[in-house]
Amino acid sequence: MKKPSNSRARSSRWSALAAGCAALAALTVGAVPAAADGPEPAAVAAGVRAPVDREALRALMAPDGVASGTMVRLSAPGLRWTEATGGLSQDPAASFRIGSVTKVFTSAVVLQLVAEGRFTLDTPVQELLPGTLPAHWHPITVGQLLSHTSGLGLPCVAPENPQAPTPAAVVAALTDPACPAPEYPVTRQQYNGFNYFLAGMVIEKVTGHRYADEVQWRIARPLGLRRTYLPAPGNTAMPAPSLAAPTAVEPWAWAEGGMISNGPDLERFLGALLRGRLLPPAQQRELFAMPALSQGAQDRFSNAGLLRAELADGTAIWGKTGSMQPYTGGVFGTADGRRVLVYAYTGVTRDPAAQRRRAQDLVAAAF
Predict the structure, then answer these.
(1) Does 1 map to a domain?
(2) Distance CA 150, CA 152 (A)
(3) 15-29, 58-72, 75-89, 320-334: segment of lowest average pLDDT
(4) CATH of the domain at 290
(5) Position 249 confidence tier, pLDDT thresholds 50, 70, 90
(6) Chain-wide mean pLDDT for the chain?
(7) Domain of 69?
């Protein structure tokens, strides 16, 4: 692997990408306090929730020091509500970059491959991707990638072509001899987007097809997600309409965070996933099963990489957040998929505490 150049611009860009990958949970996840696992409240099991606080949502959507514009889409029995504020497009079908929400699509494809018998969640990545990880590393399983319990750290060197690194170059940087080996034994759940670069590589190796094509064939087309796709490398264009004016952002994050979608598609996708339309029962259970290492983590992820958060009344909600300039957003739903929230906003600040509070307040008002 070619060592990174001394270009300050190139190095600083890669440092920012690596730091953003590590800190993404702190920046955008989380919104509501996590609690111990337990049975769902009876009201949730029956699909009954309190009415949506539309006025609270509208107040949160007003442009301020956190967001210059916000889009909210909410579906529930007897309700489908979409509004946008600020400079965002008022078109309900407007597209945006979904960032790390991409990981949920990646996880769903991996679980489908598990259901097909291609491998198991206990299969070592080293077995599926021979020669990709150093021989002296302890085996890392596919399940550990999805649940952020792999012990992987961050790259300590820049990859080749840091402006638009390939997945292989990203993993080569992660495994450079100058970088520390993963934590072993693993003692905690630690959110790390680089897990999903490896998961994407597993998908391509096992199927023999591009990751982007597998997402289309297995998820987007069956569900009719016509505005959900992974742009080709180097393609910074946005489809029209889009929520905000396009920027020259390189969608580098691939299976970790590179996809484009819109509110209707994300609502349909998460609802279908939670209701069991995409996975057989055995893999469906992984969506809600919590690894032991998630206990005590600030942000708790299931075996399938879904963020579990809990409302004040004990209701568990499941979903994912993501950030890719100029957007920050998320999608969350009740376990039965009967109420789903999609939100996206153009950020004014990158302060983690402000981002967390905004997500918390949006979720609380929607559920």
Answers:
(1) no
(2) 5
(3) 15-29
(4) 3.40.710.10
(5) low
(6) 86
(7) 8-366
Other CB atoms within 10 A of residue 68 CB? 17
pLDDT band at 49; cut points 50, 70, 90? low
Number of domains observed in the structure of the chain = 1
Please report the beta strands in the chain, taking only residues with DSSP state E, as ranges in sequence order: 67-76, 79-84, 95-97, 260-262, 300-301, 307-310, 316-324, 327-334, 340-347
Show Cβ contacts of residue 323 under 8 Å, excluding neighbours closer than 6 positions.
Answer: 20, 24, 27, 28, 99, 100, 329, 347
Which residue bears the tokens 């910074």? 236
pLDDT at 11: 45
Lowest mean pLDDT among 215-219, 286-290, 322-326: 322-326
pLDDT of residue 48 exceeding 80: no
Whether 249 maps to a domain, the answer reads yes
The predicted model scores a pTM of 0.89
The four Cα atoms 140, 145, 149, 151 give a dihedral, to 10 degrees, of 50
The count of C-alpha atoms lying within 13 angstroms of the C-alpha of 34, restricted to the half-sphere facing its C-beta, is 18
Q: Are 367 and 32 in contact (CB under 8 A)?
A: no
**Residue 306 DSSP one-character state:** P
pLDDT of residue 33: 32
Cα gap 154→136, rounded to integer Å = 18
Amino acid at 128: L
Question: Which DSSP state fits 229?
Answer: B
The reply to whether 2 falls in a domain is: no
C-alpha to C-alpha distances, 176 to 14, 159, 161, 213, 322, nearest whole angstrom: 15, 9, 15, 29, 27
Q: Quick one: DSSP state of residue 313?
A: T
Q: SS3 for 219?
A: helix
Residue 290 within a domain: yes
